[in-house]
Amino acid sequence: MSNTTRRSVLLGAAATLCTPAILHAQQSPNARLSPSGVVTRRNASSFVVQDWRDHFPTLGVATIICDMSSRALHYWNSDGSDYRVFATSVPKTDELTRRGYTKIVRKRVGPTWTPTADMRRRDPSLPEFMDAGPDNPLGTHAMYLDWPAYLIHGTHDTRKIGRRSSSGCIGLYNEQIAQLFEITPVGTQVRLI
After folding, report:
1. Is 18 a catalytic residue?
2. Which one of 24, 55, 153, 156 is the catalytic residue?
């Protein structure tokens, strides 16, 4: 009499179906095999853990670390009891990327946008000025850094998040920049890495 059961047939079939995915995961440098055997690719949610102590001696009034490699913004409040991570867009090229220490110097709901001369040189079709609204690339909220023309802001174009798509700024979904805007005081220390 055969020891073949329905359960052993189903397990064998599942193993056969998973084999191509496992082999593909082993060959793809951007793929990860989860403990359940499911292949996942690196995306906006593949954050690198950050510890504020690696960047600042204290939390100050609040701390933000923008990680360009993993496309994530890390936020801590002044006593470390509130820690949040947000998916971001980052600059398109290394030439547009600025790294280092800065701080939030002002905040604005419904920001207006004036493209820089370099932006207009790269794309002459850009307007000289754009008022707040649904077409404004700064989204619904903006926090200005003490570096000229560098901001942490929202975006109406949700396809940009998780990508190299900005002209130097850090972009978040409008809903998330609204949350961050609410809890981030002027004077928050920021590091872009």
Report:
1. no
2. 153
CA within 13 Å, CB half, 151: 28
- How crowded is residue 116: how many other Cβ atoms within 10 Å of its Cβ? 13
Of 66, 74, 141, 169, which residue is the catalytic one?
169
Sign of CA dihedral 178, 51, 164, 188: positive
Please give the Cα distance from 16 to 12 (Å, whole number). Answer: 6
Condensed to tens digits (0 to 9), the pLDDT of residues 82-138 reads 999 999 999 888 888 899 999 999 999 999 999 999 889 999 999 999 999 998 999
The pTM for the full model equals: 0.74
Q: Is 169 a catalytic residue?
A: yes
Q: What is the pLDDT of residues 35-89, one digit of tens each?
A: 444 444 444 456 789 999 999 999 999 999 999 999 999 999 999 999 999 999 9
Would you call 48 exposed, middle or buried from its count of C-beta atoms within 10 A (0-12, 13-18, 19+)?
Answer: exposed
Which tokens belong to 173? 């979904």
